[in-house]
Amino acid sequence: MLEIKNLHARIVEDGTEIIRGLNLTVKAGEVAAIMGPNGSGKSTLSYILAGREDYEVTEGDILYNGQSILEMDPAERATAGIFLAFQYPMEIPGVATMEFLKVAMNEQRKARGEEPLKVPEFLKRVKDAAASLNMDMNMLKRPLNVGFSGGEKKRAEILQMKLLEPKLCVLDETDSGLDIDALKIVADGVNALRSPERAIVVITHYQRLLEHIVPDSVHVLYKGQVIKSGDKSLALDLETNGYAGVIGQAA
Amino acid sequence: MNMHAQPQRTLAETALIDAFGERLSLLPGDGAVMVKRDDAIEAIKHGLPTRRVESWHYTDLRRLLTSVPAFEAGDIAKALDPVLDGSAVLPVLNGVSSAKAPEIEGVTVERLLEKLTDGSIAPGLDRYGADDAIGALNTAFVADGYFIDIADDAELEKPIELQNLQAGGQTHVRLLARVGAGAKAIIVERQTSEGGEAALVSSVSQLVVGDGAEVTWLIVQEQPDTATHLAQFKAHIGKDAKLTLFVMNAGGKLVRQEVVVRTTGEGADFKLRGINLLAGDTHTDTTMVLDHAVPHTASTEVIRNVVTGKARGVFQGRINVHQYAQKTNAKMACNTLLLSDEGEFSTKPELEIFADDVVCGHGATVTEIDHNHLFYLMARGIDEKAARGLLVKAFVAEVIEELDDEALVDALEARLDAWFSTHG
Q: Which of A75, A94, A164 sits opposite B378 (nearest CB)?
């Protein structure tokens, strides 16, 4: 489903190269974890997948279902089924959360040639999704993410993911800022989305989240490259021995 | 008004002075009113204010008012449906008030024509300062409008809409309101034109908010880009009284809306919320002079501007805290979203504080659309145009939502949507 080939990318503003020849393949139905120390390029990778303009791909390609997505803008990628759950979801004053959800769902439906959702159906979907994440509907009456705690923002991201039903989910440090109860709720939300047609890329610093979202593959990112890949035991190994060993082997 | 002698009259000045001579016999008023009119036209003879007059620095009326239409107007079939559902509409159509205004419980409605004719409002026709060009123009030509008196302790069940509607030509209107002690009212001042013919409108509103009364006054200005709209809103706010003034400018070629407010009783509270939606090759000026004249009064002013095309906008906010007005609390903010390289917005906040125990502040920002916000919305599949639209609307909607009254919020957001659907 996702094939990243020899990807090189830099920050547009100052030309700093962050991704330096990254290769990664994630198949439909697979949950892939990307781990790595601070500054290894994990978040950058997630932004590049979503199409953020602050980064420029200088070499290589990203194929999604066999098609390059490099020329697609963030909205086109999203309607094609790519979803990024942000590490730091943006607070947007003045945009009502419900209005935002409705516009996003209907814009995606429109792009797929589907009719807009009728209001009762929309409300039902939101209520069901919110209930499954233990979210208070009153929260959704507030402007988008405004005044949400860190944990509430992360839940709101997963809520959006549930509602938009993407094919490729990229979760950037979704565990940061969550207490253990919230972590479990969020992980259950993600696990509920696991399906043979869907790929999930979990970017995380710690093994903790992977106890709840058990990955099929684990990849270690360092200095903009995948330096080691393995199964879930690799994550446990990193937890015990730190990144130093893996980095040493690669060097 | 303008101390400098003008070398030569402009076309507009000449047209106004000539029109006064021609109209004089048609203008209502007893001797006292006619003295005020003469006085006012004298001020215009001295010349319209230029950028050298401080309060007109950003709106050089003499240069910007390039022509003045004749008085003749087109036909108007009937008043418009009100902004707020269920409002009692008091229309002024082509400058003429209605002889059969609806009955409103607790409210006495009089036509201004009668109050001019019997001279009872002559003292209210004074200008508020030497540079009061709008007051002068209006006093010289005002022919009609309304005087509404809301009884003490009356709580109006439905809003009142004062609807000033014309089809081109010139209209000069006054809308006066006295809200009795302890009364509650929502009043909409609607300013618009039909037909798109050139128009010159002067409109002066004068409001007295009685002790303990609560008034929400909404100015909805949606003139076509062929209209010059010169307006003034003056209010006195009594003891423990609350006034929320909401000004939405969403049209007009040359617009100046002045807001002149004075707190006259302790515990008075004033809120100004303004939205300027600016497009095309237009000029829109909101100028406020607020006097905190007694102790323990509060005010907040929030102005949000969206500037597109070659539009130019101005906000001048002057807060005078009198020496005696201790414990004044005043906060002013003016935020502009500049969406075009050719648009501009000028902000001039002024605090003049003579009391020593007060909390006063102001802030002004000019920003573009936050590209992080844009990315976030697009990352959810909302295309760029729709995402920008959402963010621009959000920027101004924040001020509307603060009104905290569902009917008001819905009605104003509908006006907002109407503007975005033609300018988005």
A: A75
